[in-house]
Write a structure and sequence with these properties.
The strands form 3 sheets. The protein has a 6-stranded antiparallel β-sheet with strand order 4-3-6-1-2-5. The protein has helices spanning 3-15, 20-27, 104-112, 146-156, 180-189, 200-203, 212-217, 232-245, 287-293; strands spanning 37-45, 50-57, 69-76, 79-86, 96-100, 118-121, 137-142, 165-171, 193-199, 225-230, 251-255, 268-272, 277-281, 311-321, 327-328, 334-336, 340-348. The protein contains 9 helices and 17 strands.
Length: 350
């Protein structure tokens, strides 16, 4: 038995019939047997309605790798809402997320988070991470897609003299470019980092339909392991480029969202049976969003139809896959709620 266990056993004489941990939880807001939590240590303004939120996680968190993401939960109007955010801090340091005020949860985090607040957490995950051995790297990012790549750069460049990183980042204007000043400082201090900013408001977007722009911006791009993160169009174009003009396995892609059909489903009334909640859907709002807005604790992960963590049994009715248009109507079918919308009345087993 360890020292901690001996101390707790001795203390239980004075705390019976309760356990010492029960009293510890009253004074330690990070202590929870059911839910991992973190306390906000700093909120740093970035640019264009963005902030970096650094937090200290409680027990149960495992150190993140550079490039990974984590699910973050926050209470809004009494309902706990969850979203996935890339971790922007370097590996080995307290985790941080950099959030732009787009959407309900992100806007709430940007506008209302303060030091001392409690965030609900899930452990870091994802395989958009640095290679195991030294090799030349190309980072191709746009907008908030720079967030996981910034974690990689902060981890690699100051610590590895053999690093060789080219970052090509697109933003609408220089004022919209996240981490611009820090990147300039890092590039000045380390010859291993070369930064190219592309301001689409004046320069236009990088054309990835041919290799011409990449040949000009990074002539040796074919010899580098490439990472791309940003809007769906950038990711689709880069994937096509590497398939046609190089090697697909030389490219790692991180997606924040997936393309959904514009017309959606027909809409309908959704009953969340186990939670005793109901909601009306318009046909383009996903079942996941409808449930969360109604106060249902919905399982989810990537929110893009990839990880399948959001699967919920269909009890009755039919739903439409907003990526493909496929209609699902078999009772007992496992429905991906993050990419499905109701088509008429729907009952879900959640």
């Amino acid at each position: 038995m360890g020292v901690r266990e001996v101390a707790l056993s001795a203390a239980s004489v004075f705390t019976a019939p309760y356990q010492p941990q029960d009293y510890l939880r009253l004074v330690n807001r990070l202590s929870s047997a059911r839910q991992l939590r973190g306390v906000v240590r700093s909120v740093t303004p970035e640019c264009s309605g963005s902030v970096t939120i650094t937090f200290r996680p409680g027990r149960g968190w495992h150190a993140h790798e550079a490039g990974q993401y984590a699910r973050i939960g926050v209470e809004i109007d009494g309902v706990r809402q969850w979203r996935s955010y890339s971790l922007s801090a370097p590996a080995g340091e307290d985790p941080a997320i950099t959030v732009t005020a787009v959407g309900r949860v992100s806007s709430h985090l940007v506008q209302h988070t303060k030091v001392g607040d409690i965030l609900f957490l899930a452990p870091p995950q994802g395989d958009f991470v640095l290679p195991t051995g030294p090799r030349p790297l190309l980072m191709l990012t746009a907008g908030s897609g720079i967030t996981p790549v910034m974690s990689m750069i902060r981890t690699l460049v100051p610590r590895r003299p053999d690093a060789d990183v080219v970052l090509i980042h697109s933003a609408r204007t220089s004022q919209d470019a996240l981490f611009r000043d820090e990147l300039a400082r890092l590039a000045a201090e380390h010859e291993s980092l070369h930064v190219v900013h592309r301001y689409t408001g004046t320069d236009g977007r990088i054309d990835l339909t041919t290799p011409a722009d990449l040949d000009r911006l990074c002539p040796d791009w074919r010899s580098r392991k490439a990472y791309v993160c940003g809007p769906a169009q950038l990711l689709d174009d880069a994937t096509a480029m590497w398939h046609e003009h190089h090697a697909p396995d030389a490219l790692s892609v991180e997606r924040f969202e997936t393309a959904l059909l514009a017309d959606g489903g027909s809409g309908g009334h959704v009953v969340f049976e186990k939670s005793d909640k109901e909601a009306d859907g318009d046909g383009s709002t996903t079942l996941l969003e409808l449930g969360e807005d109604a106060g249902v604790l919905m399982p989810h992960g990537c929110r893009m139809g990839i990880c399948r963590s959001c699967l919920v049994p269909l009890r009755a009715g039919q739903v439409k896959d907003l990526r493909t248009g496929e209609i699902r109507a078999d009772e007992g079918d496992l429905i991906q709620t993050c990419i499905s919308a109701p088509c008429g009345p729907v009952h879900l087993d959640v």
